[in-house]
Specification:
This protein is α+β, with helices and mostly antiparallel strands and 528 residues long. Helices cover 19% and strands 49% of the residues. The longest helix has 39 residues. The protein starts with a helix and ends in a 10-residue tail after the last helix.
């Protein structure tokens, strides 16, 4: 008797479960599908959504949606033309009581798997606030697994793409009728095979390859970061009205330690204990035949202070790098170049924290490299943070080199070639601020001899060039020290040109000391 009762109960439970499953498949799942489509699709909207299947996960209190497709709305006459595909969207741990009685959506986990978004869209010049949900939404964890995006602007050359992205957001909280912003989530993890963007003016493609960020360790790693101009040097120059640096850069082995990407996304704060760059290759080209744009340039200190967010980087380390700067002088037939190779540098205390308006601390740069690939150069820069005059002090040394190593830049920029001579050593020390650089330089050299070149042909043997060469070598002292004489000091004295960046300020201050060291009548006036 009892056995029959147990069997009836068992069959009743089975029948009930089958009935629930049947109703779920026949009634509930189609109803949910239509409900989703009705709420998300708008006939006057730019895009339409299609859903193939909806599955109710009874035992996990969840929903799985299969094969979601986003297609352009043919009745919409806008410029947006987006196509999207999602293989599956799974919601688990849905709080049913809150959903039905409190009109709140509370989900333990959401997974969006294998999603693609491609097409054209209008990128607004200024971001507009996006309305949130009509109900409160809470999601403990949201995972985008296998994310692919390739979106282009309909009005400019700008584009964005993400390949093989994985994004996990934690503690998402969207308040009813609130606008969407980065503040709706807590932390996140992210990795991608590649992030790429093309600038609106089409001049550059910027790529980050092999990105990995963990919120747990607060560490961001990038295998390779590339800034690639989309035009050759002279094509780039022809597209600009004024002189403009064309920068080609590749950085490898980049690591940001103790760096919150979420904080950077939300507030722009750039805070890190240490940034390491394993490899660095930078090439800069400027066509000085173009018109010069007369605009005052900020000092490097003011660039830090004016950063829109908080900036506090304890140190940056560059383990190995090369920088090549080339320019085409106004009357030169070809470009000249100067290079710094095997660079090893560390920068300390990069901050705009206003506490240092009262507390004393210094930004420091310590670097060494091979100048023109041959001569070792050491440099130490020190700048008091929040000094009213933006003062910085530079000390440096240059080891011996053949003077002719300077010809790649002198021949093309100054139409001068060094025919003989050797620089045995050089050391310098100067202090510079908003208005002036002053200091001392000592350059020991021997057998220095110049030849003036014809700017069009490069010839040094014509009578006119020979006369100029003779005058130049009369003005220039052949050696330092001269036989039986004491070493001659050089005087660094140069008034800052506010239209030049710090690199130009540094170079021209140094050049003033070199000129005073090698000439018989040193010019100590400004801008010498």
């Amino acid at each position: 008797m009892k056995r029959k009762i147990y069997l009836r109960i068992l069959f009743g439970i089975i029948a009930f479960v089958l009935l629930v499953m049947l109703l779920t498949k026949v009634v509930l799942e189609p109803w949910i599908r239509e409900k989703i489509l009705t709420s998300l699709n708008n006939k006057s909207g730019e895009s339409l959504l299609k859903i193939e299947k909806v599955h109710v996960l009874l035992f996990q209190s969840g929903i799985e949606i299969e094969n979601i497709t986003l297609i352009p709305n043919q009745e919409y006459n806008g410029q947006t033309n987006l196509t999207g595909e999602i293989e599956t969207v799974t919601f688990k741990g849905i709080h049913l009581i809150k959903s039905f009685f409190r009109k709140e959506i509370d989900i333990r986990e959401a997974v969006i798997f294998n999603s693609r978004l491609t097409g054209n869209v209008v990128f607004p010049e200024k971001a507009k606030p996006i309305k949130g949900s009509p109900v409160n939404i809470r999601i403990e964890n949201l995972l985008f697994d296998k994310l692919f995006i390739d979106v282009k602007s309909t009005t400019t050359a700008q584009s964005y793409s993400i390949k093989d992205g994985i994004l996990k957001l934690y503690k998402i909280n969207i308040e009813k009728q609130d606008t969407l912003s980065p503040d709706i989530f807590g932390q996140f993890d992210f990795e991608a095979r590649e992030l790429k963007t093309i600038t609106p003016d089409s001049m550059y493609t910027i790529s980050a390859i092999g990105i990995n960020y963990s919120a747990t360790s607060n560490t961001l790693k990038i295998i390779r970061f590339v800034v690639q101009p989309n035009y050759t040097e002279y094509e780039f120059s022809s597209r600009n009205q004024f002189q403009k640096d064309r920068i080609e850069a590749e950085l490898g082995g980049i690591t940001f330690h103790n760096f919150s990407v979420a904080d950077y996304v939300k507030s722009g704060n750039l805070i890190s204990s240490y940034i390491e760059i394993g490899e660095m290759e930078i090439q800069v080209f400027k066509d000085k035949r173009k018109a010069f744009r007369h605009v005052e340039r900020p000092t490097f200190q003011n660039m830090i202070y004016n950063y829109p967010g908080a900036m506090n980087i304890d140190s940056i380390g560059i383990l190995n790098g090369n920088i090549v700067y080339s320019e085409h002088a106004e009357k030169a037939t070809k470009k000249g170049k100067v290079s710094f190779n095997e660079i090893n540098a560390h920068i300390y205390k990069i901050t705009n924290d206003t506490i240092y308006k009262t507390e004393k601390t210094y930004l420091k740069l310590n670097a060494n490299a091979l100048f023109m690939g041959k001569s070792k150069i050491n440099l130490l820069l020190k700048a008091r943070i929040f000094d009213s005059q933006n003062t910085f002090v530079v000390n440096g040394t240059l080891s011996g080199m053949e003077a002719s190593e300077l010809n790649p830049i002198l021949e093309k920029s100054a139409s001068i070639t060094i025919t003989s001579g050797k620089i045995n050593a050089m050391n310098f020390s100067f202090s510079a601020n908003n208005t002036k650089a002053t200091g001392n330089l000592k350059m020991l050299y021997q057998g220095l001899n110049f030849a003036v070149m014809n700017k069009q042909t490069g010839n040094t043997t014509a009578i006119k060039e020979k006369v100029k060469s003779l005058i130049a070598n009369i003005v220039v002292i052949e050696s330092n020290p001269m036989p039986g004489k004491e070493e001659r000091p050089g005087i660094i004295e140069y008034e800052r040109d506010p239209e030049k960046f710090v690199f130009g300020y540094f170079f021209r201050a140094l050049l003033s000391g070199i000129k005073s060291s090698i000439t018989k009548s040193p010019n100590k006036k400004k801008n010498s």
